[in-house]
Amino acid sequence: MRLLRFALIVYSVLLVVVSQAASLPLTDPQQDPKTTSPKTSDAGEVAAKPQTDGVAQATSENPVSKTKVEVRKSSDSARAKGDINFDDLSFKIEKDAKFKPALLTDDIKKLDGVKVKLRGYILPSTLFKETNIDQFVLVRDNQECCFGPGAALFDCVIVEMVPGKTTDFVTRPVTVEGKFKIDTEKYKYPNGVGPRGASHFAIFKIDGVKVK
Predict the structure, then answer these.
(1) Per the structure, how many domains does the chain have?
(2) Is residue 192 part of a domain?
(3) pLDDT at 121 > cutoff 90
(4) Residue 13 CB coordination number (10 Å)
(5) How much is the average pLDDT of 202-211?
(6) What whole-number distance in Å separates Cα of residue 159 and Cα of residue 97?
(7) What whole-number distance in Å separates Cα of residue 180 and Cα of residue 32?
(8) How confident is the model at residue 79 (pLDDT cuts 50, 70, 90)?
(9) How far apart (Å, rounded) are the C-alpha atoms in residues 197 and 150?
(10) What global pTM score does this model have?
């Protein structure tokens, strides 16, 4: 019963995210700003055109290089002790693509059933209370982009505390201890079809015994 309630909360949050994204105004990428009609003032005079040519030229001549995020997986010794991070859970999949078990790497599969410690943030938007929490979503960072439409599937882990164990919400990062599991069925969207065509909202879980 509590799992069904949690799933409904998560699904409702995802629907809100999708509806908000759909309501954003769209712009025509092919519209040339140079051909648009100039604005006029109350006196009928044509408003001065902003001098942006120099800025555009400087931008084209000095394009901003994209910063490549460095992947830092746990060392073999750390993994042997169960200390993992979100980079250890990453695999090749496009955002919002349908998940297939064959996409998982051997290193990820080896974590199934292993007692781990994983550091991350409790996602507040999926909580229905702030104390005595027995289920929550653990994400890589404290941004909403780590869960739901447009997020990487491996940037979140569902935490279900074992019977008798709970935690309270905090804004700082926490470390969750418990048994790591790969579950490719429990966290599917209804009928396997979710926002933007995604099939799952999560595939990883931890049976939590401690949150600190």
Answers:
(1) 1
(2) yes
(3) yes
(4) 19
(5) 98
(6) 23
(7) 52
(8) very high
(9) 11
(10) 0.68
- Within 139-201, where are the H helices? none
3-state helix, strand, coil in the chain (%, to 5): 30, 20, 50
Structural contact between residues 98 and 196, judged by C-beta atoms closer than 8 angstroms? no
Q: How far apart are CA 88 and CA 204, in angstroms?
A: 12
Q: Which residue intervals of 35-188 are DSSP H helices?
A: 53-61, 76-80, 106-109
Residue 160 maps to which CATH number?
Answer: 2.40.50
pLDDT tens profile 163-190: 999 999 999 999 999 999 999 999 999 9
Kindly report the average pLDDT of the chain as a whole number.
78
Contact assessment for residue 125 and residue 144, using Cβ atoms and an 8 Å cutoff: yes
**Coil, strand or helix: which one is 35?**
helix
Nearest to 162 by CA among 211, 208, 130: 208
Q: Beta strands 156-161 and 135-139: pairing type?
A: antiparallel
Q: Which position has the token pair 């292993």?
A: 114
Give the model's confidence band at 149: pLDDT under 50 very low, under 70 low, under 90 confident, else very high.
low
Tokens of 22: 């759909």
* Both structure tokens of 38: 């100039």
What Cα–Cα distance (Å) separates residue 27 from each residue in 37, 53, 63? 16, 21, 23
At residue 65, what is the residue type? S
Residue 141 lies in a domain: yes
Domain of residue 192, residue span: 2-11+89-211
| Separation of alpha carbons 196 and 187, rounded Å | 16
The two tokens of residue 94 are 């496009």
Question: For residue 186, what are the contacts with CB-CB under 8 A and spacing of at least 6?
Answer: 3, 205
Q: Does residue 151 fall inside a structural domain?
A: yes
